[in-house]
Amino acid sequence: MRIEELLEKLRKEFETLEREFRQEIPKKIQAARELGDLRESGEYETIKDRQGFVQARIAFLQQRISEISKVDLISIPKDRVALGSTVHLVDEQSGEESVYTLVFPEAMDGKRGWISVASPIGRSLIGKRVGDRAVIRTPGGSRACEVTRLQTVIVIASTFASLSVNSAKQSRSFSDCAACPERSRRGRCAPSQ
To answer: What is the pLDDT of residue 1?
Structure first.
């Protein structure tokens, strides 16, 4: 999942919850007040609990959107495991190969091999290089693996950017790429002149 896609997903949830918090919940609270004694109203208590949850989730989403928006893909190391890296591992005991991509916690998808940088596996891999040994500690036990291959977000992005540059020479436009150097300098992709 690209950063823009993740941000869009979080923004949609934020907008939905903000609408609920500002429009729907106040109407429900008013309706519960009109029913009479609030001390004995289970409906009122449920609405107030929901209001607190929505308010906390909105604050969390604002913080995450801000944090994720500040991620500078250019500063992510090319030679070590970091956010966005695809890592190939070989279990030292069984010889079994595993492939993981390190993503934000909100983008985790075990079926696709997308793991959080904050997960036990992700934390064990951060900073490792090809040939390094990683000891992965999970609730199910520990296992030692060797990093056999590493593809970082910078390598992926520069491959994409070079493809975009080649197609841009023909069509004179870039695809919207979060890692595009023009985007980081200007805030948008633009064809070079």
So the answer is: 54
